[in-house]
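Replying to the earlier thread about multi-chain prediction with a worked example.

Input:
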Amino acid sequence: MRHAPHRGPVDMPALFPPWTNTVFPAVLAFSALAIPAAAVGLMAFVRSPWNTGQFEPVEQPVQFDHRHHVVDDEIDCVYCHRGAETSRFAGIPATDVCMGCHSQVWSDSPLLEPVRRSYFSGRPISWNRVYDLPDFVYFDHAVHVKKGVRCATCHGRVETMARVHQVAPLSMGWCLDCHRQADAGRLEQGQQQAYLGNTSMWGATVRASEPNGAWERHPVTRLTTCTACHR
Amino acid sequence: MPFDNGISRALNSPLGRRYYRSLLEQGETNPRAEPELSSEAGEPGPQLTRRDLTALLGASLALAGLTSCGQRPREKILPYVRAPDGVKPGVPVEYATTMTLGGLGTGLIGTVQDGRPIKLDGNPEHPASLGGSGIYEQAALLGLYDPARLTGPVHEGIPSDWHSAAEAIRGCGPRAWFVLPPQSSPLAARLIEQIRLRLPWSRFVHYQPLPRHAVYAAARGTFGRVLETHYRLANARVALALDADFTASMPGSLRMARELGQRRGRNTSGSESRLYVAEAMLSPTGSLADQHLSLQSSRVPQLARAVLQQLDQLGLRGKVRGAAPSASSSTDTRIEAFARAVAGDLARARGEAVVLVGERQPRETHVLAHAINQALGSFGRTLYFAETPLLAPEGGSSLEDLAAAIAASEVDALVILEENPVFSAPPSLRLEHLLPRVPLRIHLTDVENETSRLCQWRLPLSHFLESWGDARALDGTVSYAQPLIGARHESRSSLELLALFAGREEGALELLRALHQSDAQRSEAEWEQRLQAGFAAGSAFPPIDVTLDAEAVSSAVQAVSASTHDDGALEVNFTLGKVHDGRFVNNAWLLELPHPMTKQCWGNAAVLSPATATRLGVESGDVLEIAIQDRKLAVPALILPGHADGALSLDVGYGSAGDGLGHGVGVNAYVLRTGVAEHFSVGARVERTTMRVELALTQEHFRLHGRDYVKSTSLEEYRRAKRVAPEQRSPQRTLLPTVPAAGIQWAMSIDTDICSGCSACVVACQAENNVPVVGKRGVMQSREMHWLRIDRYFEGDVNAPRVVNQPMLCQHCEKAPCEYVCPVNATVHSPDGLNEMVYNRCIGTRFCSNNCPYKVRRFNWFDYSAEPSTPLLQKNPEVTVRERGVMEKCTFCVQRVRRAEQRALAEGRPSAATEVVTACQAACPTQAIQFGSLAAADGPIRRARADGRSYAALHELGTRPRVTYLAKVRNPNPELGE
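Result:
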């Protein structure tokens, strides 16, 4: 078979217009920046309060004010959150705990109407959970409190909150911040001061009853094994 | 024409393996390499084009991204309104209660989490449990949450209420018949007395589909009174079990299993024991036997007589006055040889020997056994007699009496409590035709079934965890059932319904307290103490001295027929299997549990021996037609080495037409029965049909690839070699880095010498660890989820194999092959030696499962726990409920480990190594499973590992498992050969 003879250059129209010479590198440069930025941005987002729900006051069915109960009345945390020293859950008080006082004081306050309704109807008050760990995490209040971790270490200064908000990010990294190190001193100065500032009686009941606490005797256990929290 | 079904090849194969789990494995000289998960691709979907598939993939990826948008919804917290005393949210509470089966109570401890019963275990203080539990005790919990349960009274198909039912009961005529399960409850006795006063013509049928009447009839004939035989295996060196599955299904089995387990410390006690078992269907007890004889049930009496004759010849008859059995009787040579060897051994162990007989055997066998035990000097040493706790041990009136009375129109009212006689009674009684002729018919039942469909009143029955009650244990100990939860439906217990008939208005609690207070010496404090313990200490019946009636023995000797069956006719055994007599047929855990010996799930089959199968020309799965007189039943065959020739065994209780999960699972073996007290039937004609069905068998799942996982030896050999696995003692070289181990190092040891394969541990694990049920089809696709399986190995001749049971669970290898292949680090090692599974990291590649040589990892093919019938209330809140697409496996009950550690930390104690008991360990009736820390110098694990029987499965792979086994050491009688 014979080939057609070569006839030299042909005037063929260009496939891409000249402006593509500018746009194409620009797109490349943008992608090179935007894709990592998107990844970094998403990672930043999941750690931000927008995702963790930190610092967002939670509405409750009863306008319960911790400031009044803790500061003015000097009621201890575990008076209401009874499970903190013995159970996985600190717990929300049963309606009859509220009524223990409020059948005598403020017994006709309209603010307490939902409490009275619950008490007399036998239907529980439907509180909104503020600290919500994922269901695959097994956290135990009792062991933390018994070893001297103050309530405020994780829950912040609840006595200053009109409506309680979540202080800690409750991320796995936050748990590991303590449990990666087995050094009580560093934890006390670092983590605790950040939320607490000073030592106050509502810091922790264990601390209050044992001035030098279990803290020194039982330092933070280094716990990085998965099944410590995930089973 | 010689029939080739693989068996004959197996029989003749010189290359057959030493250990095999099924005939297929034994017969194959070159096992096919088969994928471990036989159906890799999930459910076959509709045909997709490539274009559609790409579009779907893209869309699902985009949508999957969207699912992570948005915050989780705010959770609610609902506290108590008035907090009950002693209840702390998140802290489990334990209560003692009692489960009644066949009228006899077993003390249990129920764990309640936030008001929900989530686990049952044996009560360590209770004489009938000693802390152990069986499959029924473990699985009974699930019945509480059965979605098929009746929710309220129904009258003529229309929802009604208890008020109207009580009206109807008040108007009931005087000739009321009650059909109720056997009773030992002191309260029931009182109520029945009161009913008799109010309704003088009332009659009571204490009904049980497979009753124990022969036991009591024999005692009455031999000793002149009805007595219970209590075996004390702790004192027995040589035991002969005649058709007696005394470690798994007989009343009192939990206690006997414990005693046998303690007796058999081959290396520690120094005195070897020997167990002979003669039975038709291979039972868990049979798998423990040192010497097993497969024998048709109908010929077990001949064996008993032959043993008695041999003892007579050995001169032990002097103790048994009366007629000597005639020396010449034409039993076959197999029985003769076995009897000679056994009798010699029993005679040598005089005073330390015992013969046990199962309730399946006729009266004569029991009488002969009494004579043998008397001759052996067993009375008061290895067994004793005491009063029976049952109110009507021989049943009172019978179903035949009831049928006759209905036919004569002499029944005004029929009240059936708990039982389902229309389903379980022999068809010759024609109950389904007779029942509608009774004017008032009341059925107290958990689910709607054959009987309740013929009754005007269907009343919902309370679960025993919802109701107050009492019962006596086998030894007479009064035990109390206290509710762990309020009634979930408008239901009542049998005792409460009897109280209605007795005209009592109070609830069961008030009746129990009144009964307690009727004895002025008992204080309120004692009542509290009894409830807390679950039983009244010291209320067991004292032993009774007996004198043997020689006449009864000689007539029993005469009565044993020496005739063998004519050729072609087979014996059919009706056996109590996983679903008991049918009362657990709706229990998903038991349905899915592989049968301890056949490894069949979801149904029953006619079990037969390889030789009988060859004679009939059938393979497993071929449908047989069994005909006894005019009754016929089509049932699939299942070949089991070790089964007696010339016999079939059929589990009863399946094939129910009642509501619930068990509807239509298996076939109803009761239709073949001719008499109400029949445990086996001779003269069955069996033919093979052209049909075949696929059985859900797990015995060939997770193939062994030609490796020997298990070791066993004989006592003689063991004494010579001192170790079963000497090659495992030398240090192993490894390329992998050595991880320093400090502190508690968890490990387990399992004694296969005392593992009967009863499977209580499997159910306990399922309950504790939220293990899902996958259904029959899932099992057939090898997708069962059990974290712990029991591999049953046969060794030797397929006609008379030796059996080894090996519980197989995650071995928590120190050099775990699964860990190196996981691309996302979802399975890692903890510093205390656990192989951890992190569900959140798992992306479901299944590499780990493929690389696991023990085949103990399970994959969630579907979101099983999202099934609407899943009882979420039962789920253990301490264990994650797994989703579709993740791997799971045994965790060594890490939730219990961590909880114990946290408690120790919270209380300022140093270590929790001795406090952790895994779920399987807690359940095991023989205490074959030990768990603890390797670091504890005098701990159970160190002791077990130092034992010469200790070995690691697949040691040669270098995985260094943390689970080690103690090899089975058999002590066969040299006279009988191996």
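The CA atoms of residues 31 and 248 of chain B lie 34 Å apart.

Feel free to reuse this layout for your own posts.
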